[in-house]
Design brief:
- Strands 7, 9, 10, 11 and 16 form a five-stranded mixed sheet that branches. Strands 8-13-14-18-17 form a five-stranded mixed sheet. A three-stranded antiparallel sheet has the order 1-5-4.
- The longest helix is centred in the N-terminal third of the chain and has 17 residues.
- By secondary structure, it is α+β, with helices and mostly antiparallel strands.
Length: 497
């Protein structure tokens, strides 16, 4: 949530007008459709969704933020979410979000410009010609593009199979005359061939084929969006506003940057309620939410009960150890764990216990009661810190593992209310670059394959952030750097019995 100094309101107003002027000059909006008063209210809501309109911004700023000194609005941290909200306010689904961000960036003040790593104004040139997109030539081409619109790209062989199945489902229960009348006589090898439709659309530059991958072009996307929304009709606008209201009413949900699935739903007469239901959190996420919040309330009673959208930030460390299949029968109580270096604010629980994965018997994790890992509160000024872990065997069955982490904390620009930085991964992510388990051999990474160094660094576990591996007779040494993007307590967590 952005708040500003009351004496910055006049400057902010001029900044808003500057952005509006640029959009008008580039014919992205029309002056007759967006008055200055309407624009200011849109701009206020884009800055802070709590503002109803520009007058509300003025009133709340003067009443509630008298002591606020902030004069930075368009910053590296805020520009994406502000531009995204403005795009939603204007229904500009045809404009690339990156372009809109550049327009906003151009309006940054000197102090706002300093927040960007590299600040350079973009020179926009207004097009001196108009492209009239007439669309596909036949109903077969049209139907194919409308179907392919939500997929965007697909392997050629898969595309033929999937579109043939789509046609088969649409033909079900219809007579031959109905099939002909509705142009459903499309098949892989006879009548109107799928391959012919694809070839025609490639020649019309609505599709591209590269290395066996079929992709929809920008021209085709714009045509599909225009046709399916009936050229941004009032009906679409009403549907979109309700869809937006329903999604943003779900906690920790914002509209996706692409509206193409929504456009397809609108075209296919799916209700806003049904479309928005895709963004509802699974019920088991709320169980995890309760577990995480209970742990925070217990360990930080001064914060209890933790707010739905906490102002404090928290770090959830979930260390894991991946051995090799010959350790399937190793008992969890043989494993020793310690932290040899940590920031002062990282508080260890009184008792941690090691548990073996039910799916991968040689994968072990630390638990604090029923939570995989434990949670510590992060001081306000911390954006980077180091943690060194050490794993060993009481019986000496595997060599010592020394694992050093550097963590960099990054805000989530798509959901600024997120507050939890977590190293947790579920069992389905163990083999992805999100996993950060320690190891004492290359087997979990290579699966017994002989790999060159170039091949090794492309493996998901190494690609996730490892920059140094040393495996000798005495111990294993691993060093890695990880960027953690803020999330929240709505996630899937396994329960420890």
């Amino acid at each position: 949530m952005i708040t500003i100094s009351p004496d910055h309101i006049a400057s902010l107003k001029q900044q808003a007008y500057q952005i509006r002027d640029t959009l008008i000059n580039l014919d992205l909006i029309y002056e007759s459709d967006t008055s200055k008063a309407q624009w200011l209210s849109m701009f206020a809501r884009s800055i802070n969704s709590a503002f109803v309109n520009w007058n509300d911004l003025i009133s709340k700023t003067k009443r509630q933020h008298k002591l606020c000194k902030n004069k930075n609005v368009i910053t590296s941290d805020s520009i994406r979410i502000i531009s995204k909200r403005m795009r939603e306010e204007l229904f500009l689904n045809e404009i690339d979000l990156q372009i809109l961000m550049l327009i906003f960036k151009n309006s940054a003040s000197e102090t706002e410009a300093l927040t960007f790593k590299e600040y350079q104004k973009t020179v926009f040139t207004k097009s001196d010609h108009i492209i009239l997109e007439l669309g596909p030539k036949t109903i077969f081409q049209r139907d194919f593009l409308i179907w392919f619109f939500v997929f965007k790209n697909m392997k050629y062989e898969r595309l033929v199979v999937d579109y043939a199945l789509n046609m088969k489902e649409r033909r079900a229960g219809k007579t031959k005359l109905e099939i002909q009348a509705k142009s459903l006589n499309v098949y892989p090898k006879s009548n109107i061939k799928i391959s012919s439709i694809v070839d025609e659309l490639i020649s019309l530059q609505y599709l591209e084929l590269r290395n066996g991958l079929v992709s929809i072009t920008e021209n085709a996307l714009q045509w599909c969006r225009d046709v399916q929304t009936d050229s941004q009709s009032k009906e679409w606008e009403s549907w979109f506003n309700e869809w937006k209201r329903l999604i943003t009413a779900i906690e920790y949900r914002q509209l996706p940057e692409s509206w193409d699935v929504a456009i397809s739903d609108f075209y296919n007469s799916v209700s806003p309620e049904q479309s928005a239901s895709r963004y509802l959190w699974p019920q088991n996420y709320f169980r995890s939410d309760s577990i995480i919040r209970e742990h925070i309330n217990t360990r930080y009673p001064e914060d209890a009960p933790i707010h739905r959208y906490p102002k404090n930030r928290y770090f959830m460390l979930s260390p894991e150890l991946m051995l090799t299949p010959n350790f399937n029968r190793l008992q969890a109580d043989d494993i020793q764990f310690e932290i040899t270096e940590k920031p002062n604010w990282l508080v260890l629980p009184k008792k941690l216990h090691v548990k073996k994965s039910a799916k991968t018997k040689y994968l072990f994790a630390l638990y604090d009661e029923n939570l995989k890992g434990w949670i510590s509160k992060i001081p306000d000024n911390v954006v980077k810190f180091n943690i060194n872990l050490k794993w060993s065997s009481k019986s000496g069955k595997f060599k010592c593992i020394k694992h050093s982490f550097t963590y960099i904390l990054q805000v989530d620009h798509s959901e600024a209310r997120n507050w939890l930085f977590s190293t947790f991964v579920d069992e389905y992510q163990v083999s992805t670059n999100k996993a950060s388990w320690s190891f004492n051999s290359l087997y979990p990474i290579c699966k017994s394959q002989t790999m060159s160094q170039e091949e090794l660094i492309k493996q998901p576990r190494v690609d996730g952030g490892i920059y140094y591996i040393e495996l000798n007779e005495k111990d294993a040494i691993i060093k890695e750097e990880r960027t953690l993007v803020a999330t929240n307590s709505l996630m899937y967590l396994p329960v420890s019995n």
